[in-house]
Amino acid sequence: MELSGLRGRGGAGFPTGKKWRAVAAQCAPVKYVVANADEGDPGAYIDRYLIEDIPHRLIEAMAIAGYVVGSAKGYIYLRKEYPQACAVMKQTLVEAHREGVLGDRILRKDFTFDIELVVGRGSYVCGEETALLNSIEGCRPEARLRPPYPSEDGLFHKPTLINNVETLANVPWIVRHGGDAFRNLGFSNSQGTKVLSLNSLFRSPGLYEVEFGTSVRQIVENLGGGLRTGKPIKGVIIGGPLAGIIPPHLFDTPLGFEELASIGASVGHGGVLAFDQHTSIAELVHHVFDFAAFESCGKCTPCRLGSREIEQMFRRVVETGQTSAREKLGLLEITSALEMTSLCGFGTGLAEFAKSVLRYYAEELESCFR
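The chain above was modelled as a monomer; its predicted structure follows.
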């Protein structure tokens, strides 16, 4: 895994091999492997496709991970809005036990590993790894203070490896073909491929697997075919609502973790949302922060109060066309607090979104603050 350069496909892009090594290094009799299949980003259905279409690959990957880190038990945390994926995975687990690739003495070797399917609780924040662990334990799904990290103190206070479904889907291929072969795909520090989910506003929506290094322009124009309305694109968000907006003049930026971060954007989970020139930025900001205020777990103050404050600010903009210049200063202060003091990526993602709006669409917003 380390040689391959595989990085997490769930948003953070953390090196997978490093995460595996951290769990393997823990001297504990009980460890866990958790597959995060709680994709809640609007328009994203990558995990759903992988589970419904190639479920055995996820089971194989989790068993490999369990063997490497020294775990005998895994959990798949599946979004509750995916009943078909749930049914497919239940049947696949039965088949895996029947064929001897799960359970005691797998393939007649001295290795035991089993997987339990857990249906999600419906909250968006359950996609955050520590909130997900709380949910599996039957606790309130809210982010945990770190450190300690899940690799040391995770599920039921045991060392826990948590990987996104797409991350794990790469594991069997890497084991079969070798780390070097995987590393030859992609570019710079972003190896391999990324599955993207283009939303229904594109002329050709759907799932696409692209090599890292593919430009945003190639994705939205060559694959997506532009907008189905034929209108010019005003901006694109990759990775769901908690990520920065990419304006058209930056569409030649390659798909890569550092490359997108350098312009205030993110690879995220891979959902690609586009909007046209007639979209009001104020309405978009209001929509995102209304979503965020509703879905916040409420544990940390900046996220709990800040998201609602910004939502109310832009509700006034949408309803009246303007708000006070003093509130612009408040927007900057809340954004800074979200970025620096949020417990998890939910709050920091909101900050990235707000910063990108202020950076790239300042002229449109300026008329609102009077």
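The domain at 281-366 is CATH 1.20.1440.230 (de novo design (two linked rop proteins)).
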